[in-house]
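Subject: Sanity check before I submit

Could someone independently write out the structure tokens for this chain? I want to compare against mine line by line before I put it in a report. The sequence has 139 residues.
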Amino acid sequence: MNLVVLIGRLTRDPELKFGQSGKAYSRFSLAVDRAFSKGETDFINCVAFGKTAELIGEYLRKGRKIAINGRLQMNRYEVNGEKRITYDVLVESMEFVESKGGEGVADFNPAPTYSSAPKNDSVPTTDYDNSFDEDEFPF
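---
Independent answer below. Compare away.
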């Protein structure tokens, strides 16, 4: 099972771009504190697609705390004959963890959740598709 859940702060403003087919994607990184290592932080690269990418690109900025749910993907490529490997978290859903002012989520208003994955409601959702062609995106 490949499941990643992270809570962290954006290290920079997300990049919202569109592939050749017009599908949105957004790249960003999260600073996630290590649970049992005081003062240590991991910086994790993430990418979202579709409506989730558009929401991230529109509403999130550097320093904003969010929770994401996704899966880990390894990418291999070559630069000047040197083989390299990178890891990205492919975001399937995200939540705002604190209010815009940064005081934490208000008790009376739960944080909204945004997801790229199709819902399992009685009404099928067909307005977007989170599958993608790996050749379409430059990473």
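---
OP: Matches mine. For the report I'm noting this point. Confidence is low (pLDDT under 50) at residues 104-111, 118-130.
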